[in-house]
Each structure stands twice: as structure tokens, then as C-alpha cells.
Design goal:
- The protein is an alpha/beta fold.
- It has a six-stranded parallel β-sheet with strand order 6-11-10-9-8-7. A four-stranded antiparallel β-sheet has the order 3-5-1-12, covered by helices on one side. Strands 2-4 form a two-stranded antiparallel ribbon.
- Helix 8 links the parallel strand 8 and strand 9.
- The relative contact order is 0.16.
- Belongs to the NadC/ModD family.
- It catalyses: nicotinate beta-D-ribonucleotide + CO2 + diphosphate = quinolinate + 5-phospho-alpha-D-ribose 1-diphosphate + 2 H(+).
Length: 301
């Protein structure tokens, strides 16, 4: 991306965000009394057993640490003892149908009270990671890297962006606070690209500034204004290639580097063609707003 804003690729699990999500999800599922009426009525408090989290379809795993967080929170709310846990597959690993992700052993009540919450979260995150892996595979060899966007599920941003990293993608910006993106409305309000760029640079001198462009002429205007990070929006592949070539030539003449991102209207079918235009990045909102879940289940032994 740029020298002052490196993209995030590390698989560091967002523990604090996950704990908040688990608490909210269990509030929904167990209610104010932390109660599972079915399990409480049918399973003795001292009955123990084991279960396995199993993949029902192929994918790329994300969210494994959630299992322990859910088990521990259920135990805390019910005054029970958290089941033991053996996680067998690491996040970012490929899953085949039938793979055992983890084995749980302990109170069956605790296991079943935790079941739906941990599966809901893990299935969602694994779906994002799996979808992202398809994009990274499609772009292999092009020199282009897929980025996520802010089109995330409210409250799940840190976790969904973690899942993108599990799938081999890269996080662009976490919010409105860490990268400035000058879009058409900002240009209109500020009175031009140069005015918008200058205002941001003066107020926030350390922040990365990206300018959205829709033509080669706009790209060159943004470069003249000072931007070294361009987002080419909804460009046909031929126009994108021409814009990349013009921007690179402009930067080469001055001994500078410009980074170029494509976005808008991109699909897996055209990903390789767009990646081959010479862009650095391809941002895909669908990684987080349209990824189907991967079916995971909990089977008692």
C-alpha cells in the first residue's frame, strides 16, 4: 500500500472483539437466566460426554479460537465447568468434508448450550475465508493482491477482516479513521481534487490518502494534486490498463512510486484479467458482504 500504512496480513486473532461478540450472541441464545430449557430438562447436570466440530463441506477454516471463548462464557454464566478442548486444525488451513476441527469433552449440557453460538460464528468466518481463498487463487501469478472493504457486518468487522486474512487476502482499512479516501462527494464539497487532498494533508499529515478516479484524466489530476494512491472505480479492463500505464509513466518520470487499486464490478471470472493490468490491489466488498457460510456441525460421540 504505502510506506506509512502497511496492509494487515498477520493472523492475529481479534480476541477482544470476539469476546464482545460471544457475549452478545449468548445473550440472544440463553436469555437473561442463561437457560437452555431443552438440555436442562433432558440431560442430568452430571452427565458427561464428548462431541466433535466437523466440517460438512470443504473450505478454509477461520474462527477456531471462538470455541474456547464460547465454552468458557457458558460455564461462567451457568456456574459450571468448561469442557476440555482439543483443537485439531489451525485457522487458515484447508478443510475437507468430514474433517474434525476440534473435540470437546465434559458436561453435555455445557456443550449443547454452546453449540449454536460457536457454530454460527465459525461458519460465518470460515465462509469469508473460503470465499477469499477463491480470489487469491484467481489472482495467483498476477502480482495483484485482493483487499477487503468496510462493507462488513456491523459488530463483526474485526472478525470478518481476520477471516479475510485467513483466506490469504489483505485488510485495507479498518474504518474511516486510519486511511483517507477522497471520493466524488468529498471532491464536490471541497471544491476539487487538489483542494480535498490539501485539506486532508494539512489536517492529518501522517494519514494515507487515496483518491478515487473514474478516468485516466482524473488519475493524472490526482497525481498532480499529490496523491500516490489511486482507486480506479468501475473501469473496463482496457481503460484500467491505459490508466495504469499512464500513471506509472507519470511516476517513473519523477522517480516516484504510485500504488493503484481497482474496485467495482469485479467478479471471479474476470479477476485474472484485471489483475494482469498491472494494478497492485483489487478491493472486493463481496468478501465480507456476500460470502456464504461453510457448513460446520457438532456431532456427539
Amino acid at each position: 500500500m504505502t510506506a506509512d500504512q502497511q496492509p494487515d496480513r498477520e493472523l492475529v486473532f481479534p480476541d477482544e472483539a470476539a469476546r464482545r461478540l460471544v457475549a452478545t450472541a449468548l445473550d440472544e441464545d440463553l436469555g437473561p437466566q442463561a437457560l437452555d430449557v431443552t438440555s436442562t430438562a433432558t440431560i442430568p447436570a452430571d452427565q458427561v460426554g464428548a462431541g466433535q466440530v466437523v466440517a460438512r463441506e470443504a473450505g478454509v477454516l477461520a474462527g477456531g479460537p471462538v470455541i474456547a471463548l464460547v465454552l468458557d462464557e457458558v460455564a461462567t454464566r451457568t456456574g459450571g465447568t468448561s469442557p476440555s478442548l482439543d483443537v485439531r486444525i489451525a485457522d487458515g488451513s484447508a478443510l475437507a468434508r468430514g474433517d474434525v476441527v476440534a473435540e470437546l469433552r465434559g458436561s453435555l449440557r455445557q456443550v449443547l448450550m454452546a453449540e449454536r453460538t460457536l457454530l454460527n460464528i465459525m461458519s460465518r468466518l470460515t465462509g469469508v475465508a473460503t470465499h477469499t481463498r477463491r480470489w487469491t487463487d484467481a489472482l495467483e501469478g498476477t502480482g495483484c493482491t485482493v483487499l477487503d472493504t468496510r462493507k462488513t457486518t456491523p459488530g463483526l468487522r474485526a472478525l470478518e477482516k481476520y477471516a479475510v486474512r485467513c483466506g490469504g487476502g489483505t485488510n485495507k482499512r479498518m474504518g474511516l479513521y486510519d486511511v483517507a479516501m477522497v471520493k466524488d462527494n468529498h471532491v464536490h464539497a471541497a471544491g476539487g481534487v487538489a483542494a480535498a487532498y490539501a485539506a486532508i494533508r494539512a489536517r492529518y499529515p501522517e494519514v494515507t490518502i487515496e483518491v478515487e478516479v473514474e478516468s485516466t484524466e482524473q488519475a493524472l489530476e490526482a497525481l498532480e494534486a499529490g496523491s500516490r494512491f489511486l482507486m480506479c472505480d468501475n473501469m473496463p479492463v482496457d481503460l484500467l490498463r491505459a490508466t495504469v500505464d499512464a500513471a506509472r509513466a507519470w511516476a517513473d518520470e519523477r522517480g516516484e512510486r504510485v500504488e493503484i487499486e481497482a474496485t467495482g464490478g469485479l467478479t471471479l471470472e474476470v479477476a485474472a484479467a484485471y489483475g494482469a493490468t498491472g494494478i497492485d490491489w483489487m478491493s472486493v466488498g463481496a468478501l465480507t458482504h456476500s460470502s456464504p457460510i461453510v457448513d460446520l456441525a457438532l456431532d456427539l460421540l
